[in-house]
Design goal:
68 residues, 29% helix, alpha+beta, globular, four-stranded antiparallel beta sheet
């Protein structure tokens, strides 16, 4: 499952280091990343602060590609 997160400015450098090592993902502007559930778990265990913006729609009962 892919999760969209936005990392706090304070933890941005630490998040980059963790994500580069542990997760194939996508970096977007404004400290926003599309990462795996395992990467989110690793970030929580490391004590990094972030907001979860979105989860993969198909897991929420919405067909992929369908507007929410």
């Amino acid at each position: 499952m892919k999760i969209v997160i936005q990392v706090s400015a304070r933890d941005s450098a630490k998040a980059w280091a963790l994500l580069v090592r542990h997760s194939p993902g996508t970096a977007l502007p404004n400290r926003t990343f599309v990462v795996s559930q395992e990467a989110v778990r690793a970030m929580r265990e490391a004590g990094l602060r972030f907001n979860e913006l979105s989860r993969e729609a198909s897991r929420l009962g919405v067909p992929a590609g369908e507007r929410i």
